[in-house]
Amino acid sequence: MIKGFKDFLLRGNVVDLAVAVVIGAAFTAVVTSFTTSFLEPLIGLVGGGGVDGGVFEVDRQKFTWGSFVNQLITFVLTAAVVYFVVVTPMKRLMERRAAGEEPGPAAPTQVELLVEIRDLLRAQQQKKDPLAPHHSQARGGPLHEGR
C-alpha cells in the first residue's frame, strides 16, 4: 500500500503539478518582490526619468516597456530557480530510483527447483541411514526415467 502511494507521488505528472502550484506560486511572490523593489528602479534609471522611466509616449499613448522587461526578468528568475531547485533534483531522484529497480537474477525454473528438492531429500535420507540404498537408485528412479 505504501509502495503504491510512493509510486503515485513520484510519477512525473504529480510532481509537475506540485512544482507548478506550490513552489511556483510561493517563489513567484519572492521574485516579484525582488523585481519590484530592485529591478523596476534600475530600469527606471536606465530608461531615464527615475521611477517613471521605462515608459515612452506616442500621441499621448504610454508604452510601459520597463514593466514588460520587469515581468520578463521575473519569469526567467522563477523558471531558473524552479528548474535548478526542484526539477533537477527530482530528475536525479527518478534516475536513481529507476537504477535501483533493475531486475535481479532470474527465478529458478520448475525443473531446477525439483532437482534441488530431490538433492535435499537424498541428503536427508543419507543422514538417516547412510548404508541403506536409495529407493530411486534401486529401482532405476522415477526422476531418472526422462533422462
UniProtKB/TrEMBL annotation:
Keyword Magnesium included in the entry's annotation: no
Molecular function GO terms recorded: mechanosensitive monoatomic ion channel activity
Bilayer topology annotation: Multi-pass membrane protein
Signal peptide start and end residues: none
Pfam families: MscL
Annotated stretches, region: Disordered: 125-147
Gene3D superfamilies: Large-conductance mechanosensitive channel, MscL, domain 1
InterPro entries named among the record's database cross-references: Mechanosensitive_channel_CS, MS_channel, MSC/AndL, MscL_channel
Name assigned to this protein: Large-conductance mechanosensitive channel
